Amino acid sequence: MTEFLAMGGYAWYVWGSYGVTFACLALEVVFLMKRSRETKT
Amino acid sequence: MTAGSTRWFWYASPQTFYPLAGSIARWCGIAAALLAAAGLWVGFFVAPTDAQQGEAYRIIFIHVPAAWMSMFIYLVMAFWAALGLAFNTRLSGMMASALAPTGALFTFIALWTGSLWGKPTWGTYWVWDARLTSELILLFLYFGFMALQAAIDDPRRADRAGAVLAIVGVVNIPIIYFSVKWWNTLHQGASVSLKSAPSMAASMFTGMILMALAFWMYSVAAALVRVRCIIRERG
Question: Looking at beta carbons, which residues of chain B come within 8 Å of A39?
Fold first, then answer.
């Protein structure tokens, strides 16, 4: 598991990419759900 | 007017498109989650370590699909914008507005992941290479489109002004795509093309295609949820 997380020494680059991508998509979904709720009333 | 074109114009009305968009968005959202799970599994557990780049190459599974989507969404956005200008259909402008934020998001992701991939492979986070610079211009085109639309109060006029900007900006897409051929700078050429077999292991290619499909389904879902918001907001 630690070996997997270490990504052969490239942890910052690999997880930095995947983490920011996931955060961006998750934020868009949250904003869209919020906008949906606000416009539905 | 033929029966076929009548049906297309039937869905050009926001009110008739509204429920259809809802069900397509739901199914695309589910498909995106399943495809992303499969793509990540293949990308991290099936695809082998790269001989030259080690594990750093695994950024490819989001970088390349995000870059594809950033260009593809722009083309679809410009297509809807042009349709709106030509036929003056209300839904077209709404679709263009709904696509822009998701397109900008994927452009940012392509730049961010590219930067984090550039550091271990090229030794720098950023360089004014033709591919990187034209992709950055694409991000500014999305921002410009959104800012212009937000600055105009009347939605129909905002749609028309945005449409002109979107159509003019299309010239940037072939520049991004062919930049690695036209200018011999740092960014590598395409590993995947329509004409030849991909120059990578089959499992790497599979992971990349699965992630591309996941991003594609996600984009459709996000844009359609947003267009439903816009339809409700404009009434």
Answer: 229, 232-233
